[in-house]
Amino acid sequence: MNKIVLASGNKGKLKEFSELMADYGVEILAQSALNVAEVPETGTTFVENAIIKARNAAEVTGHAAIADDSGLEVDFLQGAPGIYSARYAGEGAKDEQNYTKLLNALDGQTQRSARFQCVLVYMRHAKDPTPIICQASWEGTIGFAPQGDNGHGYDPIFIPAEHECPAAELSSDEKNKLSHRGKALVLLIEAMKQQGIFN
Ligand code: IMP
User: Fold this and answer.
1) Domains of the chain (ranges plus CATH)?
2) Would you call 69 a catalytic residue per the annotation?
3) How is the cofactor bound (predicted)?
């Protein structure tokens, strides 16, 4: 079986990638199970950070690697919190602290358009000069108060263009069909098929 290491410590992502890739005879390995330490995300773009993470996982394990980097772009804030979404309210901030800071930054604003971005990178090996890079986004607006218990991160305040309710009120199936990560995953699998990575 083809083995690919996932450069993420997130259990939800591990499950999602494992289920999708199993259909193609690929076993997804968690980088934490292979003693890969998390690498500092020193890039200034989603693409750079995803490449940094994939390269690190490939280098340490000797396997091909997949990494993702994602975040929320708010137009009124010139794209912030962007690549800093997870640490918008400070290093180690909780989801609630991050989205509360964002709601405060938009206090009194009517321009509330925003989108989630996701970049997925596949590297055949650590020195791969042409990684596969796929990107997708999910358009919406920022609500005025948190609502809903599903999902994670900014889901309680992100109202997708396709719905009247926040992403935190969608089922995971509904979210996966529309979301930045769900769409980027479809693109990545398509690109990997085209390049003959699955046998
Ligand atoms: P990462 O891709 O796990 O590094 O995610 C970066 C940050 O972006 C997360 O910690 C969340 O704050 C935010 N984020 C990314 N995707 C989503 C999503 O689907 N819903 C809510 N927040 C998200």
Assistant:
1) 2-194 (3.90.950.10)
2) yes
3) Binds 1 Mg(2+) ion per subunit.
Alpha-helical regions (H) of 2-113 = 11-22, 46-61, 95-105
Token match 């772009």: residue? 73
Predicted TM-score (pTM) above 0.90: yes
151 annotated to bind ligand:
no
**pLDDT-derived band of residue 10, with 50, 70 and 90 as boundaries?**
confident
Mean residue pLDDT of the chain comes to: 95
- Give the pLDDT mean for 25-54: 96
Count the Cβ atoms, other than its own, within 10 Å of residue 41. Answer: 17
pLDDT for 115: 98
Sheet holding 113-123, edge to edge: 26-30, 2-6, 64-74, 113-123, 132-142, 158-160
Q: What is the pLDDT of residues 61-84, one digit of tens each?
A: 999 999 999 999 999 999 999 999
What does the DSSP 8-state code read for residue 110? S
67 within 8 A of 7, measured Cβ to Cβ: yes
Q: Which residues line ligand 1 (CB under 6 A)?
A: 10, 68-72, 85-86, 98, 116, 151-155, 179
